[in-house]
Amino acid sequence: MSYELQVLNPATEEVVASVPATTAAEVDAAVARAAKAQQGWAAAAPADRARLLRRFAVVVDEHLEELARLEVREAGHTIGNARWEAGNVRDLLDFAAGGVERLSGRQIPVAGGLDITILEPLGVIGVIAPWNFPMPIAAWGTAPALAAGNAVLLKPAETTPLTALRLAELALEAGLPQDLFQVLPGAGDVAGSALVEHPGVAKIVFTGSTRVGKSIMARCAERVKRVTLELGGKSPNIVFADSDIEAAVAATPMSFLDNSGQDCCARTRILVQRSVYDRFLQLLAPAIESVVVGDPGDEKTQMGPLISRVQLDRVRSYVTDELQGIRGTAPEGPGFWFPPTVLTGLAPDAPAACEEVFGPVAVVLPFEDEADAIRLANSTEYGLSGSIWTRDIGRAIRVSRAVTAGNLSVNSHSSVRYWTPFGGYKQSGLGRELGPDALTAFTETKNVFISTEA
Ligand code: NAD
User: Fold this and answer.
1) Of the four, 88, 100, 152, 219, which is 20 to 30 A from 250 by CA?
2) Helices of type H across 105-179
3) 230 tagged catalytic
């Protein structure tokens, strides 16, 4: 049955576009075309594949401002962030292109012959992306998968299909073979499910909620289909009394307000050593109150709206009027606005303190000592990111080792670079994306023994 997706501007609630959505039968046809295109792509000379991906990066760069403005309109991202996101697609394509000719197998010593490993492409890859970082997350799966010799079918989130569709056009403009990279906008339980269940799709790369990720993993298990999962987070920002408190405070607002808090790495559990707890909050209040929330197309804006009314209602459900804390400001009127919010006085197991809110809301919890900080940091089902603020190098190393999360930073909040590995512990995910091994995740290792005795 045919249906359409309506794309709204989250800052104004105006309709930006209506996009025809992909039916299950259309997914079938797309898989067949992709499988054919993949054979030619895998057989092409590595240098030619690399050259085409580099050309794709150049074309993305030439359209960077257009892509960024599209992201502002469909996702409400601030223009500065949106430019970074389009640039991230370009950089990832370049990085992956550099891997095509370096995707080497090994030679392993054996008696009586020669033993080699060959890294073969998997075939057709299904990338299912969320709405919070539509362009980068699409590219994290797509670029290395293509570089390793696969075809890609990308299903963007229902609310944010436009940049993905434009990237598919730019791929063709760059000269990538027809059908090698197709974008299939559609509902998760229609187009997404069809990809997950299709026998012709060799691997699913999923980024989204833990709930949907679990269901995808279970369905992939039916066919032993390969799967990478990037799921939710509730990441700690641990501030020790021996840290540079001013620096820790200055970095705190955007560590959970960037992208309006719709960031799986958002540092939404701020753990502060009790001896500096009051001072930290005193300094934090003006920093939160002065965050500029408004028109995402304005260069000075630091935080835009939430993606949708559904998300706004979800965030509101965690922040009831009687809760104490610090509140910033947000525009009134149309758009899905929520002010920067820091909650205090909550128990560590309160819903806002341990569930992923996915909005501009953090909690501050006091801790006594290093052991207490580690216990609190590890006391959620998630394990994606975290930050540790201390001047004591030994403590920084001890705590980095003890926190069960995939991406930690000391005296900073950075966690995602396309050339370093990214992924979650526990229920934050399975497998790793990006980094030096990004291409290998899209290959199967074949071992071949060649006898010298015959
Ligand atoms: P979601 O799980 O609802 O949707 C993600 C994608 O899955 C969408 O494209 C959706 O259409 C599709 N989908 C939904 N149901 C499906 C089904 N039954 N079968 C196949 N596909 C289906 O998540 P969301 O609301 O779009 O994104 C927000 C979530 O993503 C947050 O929980 C966040 O933490 C997580 N996230 C994680 C990372 C990470 O790298 N770990 C990055 C970004 C977002």
Assistant:
1) 88
2) 134-147, 162-174
3) yes
